[in-house]
Write a structure and sequence with these properties.
- The protein is an alpha/beta fold.
- The chain folds into 2 domains: 153 residues, Alpha-Beta Complex (Spore Coat Polysaccharide Biosynthesis Protein SpsA, Chain A); 224 residues, Four Helix Bundle (Hemerythrin (Met), subunit A), CATH 1.20.120.
- The strands form 3 sheets. The chain has a 7-stranded mixed β-sheet, with helices on one face.
- Strand 8 and strand 9 form a beta hairpin.
- Helix 4 packs across helix 6 and helix 8 packs parallel to helix 11.
């Protein structure tokens, strides 16, 4: 357990919209970041008590107190005009387990963590914290409009994910982060954005079902738009600290629903264009196998209390067979972001049929992988994996 102590900043922060970072004031962002990382309370230092009215917000669920914290808890002191990566609070709290103080940042933008009084082993200067995070940034003091812009950019970059595929990393995420700046300024909520993104995905299937070349291209383009915008709801949620279980489920189900809507619509459109029943079977394989795999994954997520598909422990391990190694090397091409982009390019080139067949093969492969994962979980003796 740890508490965060807000101390006065080095200088008055800019007020009004100029003093807001990611749609909120810097002190409120500090409180919400600490809360997200498990802080038990936030204490206002003697000279920082005037901040209390600015910390009244429905998102704040931990106590806001004045005065010194109890000596038996870990304390993290942070200036009220500094923006800190949210995960740094948890890293600092964990780092003082050996009883030695830690410091993250330098100068006026410095965060100091101290162990509980009973476990402190050193009264010397704090040891610098090495914060390992894919998109980490040092504490940033916000005293001017330029500082606020820099801090906002750092927070947006921190919304990137190491698990992003090629297309998300170099294309989709750049577009979504730019749009997220605007969406935060407009005050839109993440769940509202999720519903709008799902509507675009469903529309892609309706348009593709027309069975014309223009319909296929426009439908695939809408699916690509949905894939690009898919990051916005999560980015807005993280930037504004509005993450929720409902939001996770909306994002997960929305992606699957968009996929099935487009590929079902495109398969029906190919049937209309060619009068071949085979395309109806292709669509049935995509939706049937994909839907069954999704249902199995959803059951696991419901059991562990999450809506994030990344939590699902997909079976892995280094491939041994040469064919399996080749398949593993091609796996990035079948990540959702890249595959949807390739589908759009195939539709534009008049080769959507190849993308549909590849999607059907992929749906079968995913179902087999999910069933193997379920078999492994059933054999596992680890309670956390059997929930």
């Amino acid at each position: 357990m740890f508490v965060v102590v807000l101390t006065p900043g080095a200088a008055p922060s800019p007020r009004g919209r100029r003093g807001r970072v990611g749609g909120m004031s810097v002190p409120l962002r500090l409180v919400l970041s600490a809360q997200r990382c498990g802080a038990a309370a936030v204490h206002l230092a003697r000279d920082a008590e005037a901040l209390a009215p600015a910390l009244i917000d429905r998102r704040v669920t931990i106590p806001i107190r004045t005065g010194a914290p109890p000596p038996e808890v870990v304390t993290i002191e942070v200036p009220a005009d500094v923006v800190v990566h949210a995960d740094a609070f948890r890293a600092l709290a964990d780092a003082v387990a050996d009883g030695r103080a830690r410091v993250f940042g330098h100068g006026d933008a410095k965060v100091v963590a101290r162990a509980a009084a009973a476990t402190r082993t050193s009264h010397g200067p704090p040891v610098p914290l090495v914060f390992a995070h894919a998109f980490a940034f040092p504490p940033m003091r916000v005293a001017t409009l330029r500082d606020a812009v820099r801090a906002n950019g750092a927070l947006l970059r921190a919304c990137r994910k190491p698990t992003d595929g090629w297309t998300s990393r170099y294309l989709n995420r750049n577009v979504s982060l730019t749009l997220t700046r605007l969406l935060i300024h407009l005050g839109l909520r993440p769940n509202h954005i999720s519903l709008a993104i799902v509507a675009i995905g469903v529309a892609s299937g309706v348009v593709a079902a027309r069975g014309t070349h223009d319909g296929f291209v426009l439908g695939a383009a809408l699916l690509q738009v949905q894939s690009t915008l898919d990051g916005c709801d999560g980015e807005v949620a993280r930037m504004t600290h509005r993450q929720s279980r409902l939001g996770e489920w909306l994002d997960t189900i929305g992606d699957d629903l968009s996929n099935y809507a487009f590929f079902a619509g495109a398969s029906f459109g190919m049937h209309r264009a060619t009068n071949s029943v085979a395309w109806l079977w292709v669509g049935a394989v995509i939706v049937g196998c994909g839907g069954l795999a999704s249902a199995i994954e959803y059951r696991y997520l419901a059991r562990v209390g999450s809506g994030d598909l990344l939590v699902y422990p997909i079976v892995g391990g280094p491939p041994r067979h040469p064919v399996a190694r080749v398949a593993a090397g091609l796996q990035p091409l079948f990540k959702r972001d890249t595959f949807i982009l390739l589908t759009f390019l195939a539709a534009a080139a008049g080769a959507l049929s190849a993308a549909l067949i590849a999607s059907a093969v992929g749906a079968v492969a995913i179902l087999i992988t999910v069933m193997r994962t379920e078999a492994r979980l059933a054999r596992s003796d680890t309670p956390s994996e059997r929930r």
